[in-house]
Design goal:
The protein is mainly α. The chain has a domain of 92 residues: Multidrug-efflux Transporter Regulator, Chain: A, Domain 2, CATH 1.10.1660. The chain is built from six helices and three strands; from the N terminus they run βααββαααα.
Amino acid sequence: MPLPSIPAKRYFTIGEVAELCGVKPHVLRYWEQEFTQLRPMKRRGNRRYYQHHEVLMIRRIRDLLYEQGFTISGARNQLQDTSPTRMHEALQPALAEHDVPVIQLAPPDNAGYSAPVWGDMGRVRQELFEIRSLLSDQ
């Protein structure tokens, strides 16, 4: 059975994500512990709010585990083997379909950044975008 299309919303509750991805909420909470890429924003009362890219990531994890037969560890390795740039490129069609703003993740060719440093910069950048969206919601 195909998964439903992802509505054009900024944030999704855990219940909405569970329906959109075909998994139970407790599975999503477990996957957050297993996959460091999943870090939904938590607000009042520790309620989780997922963004489009996280819903897409959950669908990717679901595909790796349920369709391709990877173990948790194998899926984790598969996701870690994908550089931020390659992951961004892989998500481009889905991001465009849902009109999600595109952020350039790759450093300039001559920047001289090592992969681990650039990965940390990507996480910092994502956190800054989340902070900005929290502040603009107030």
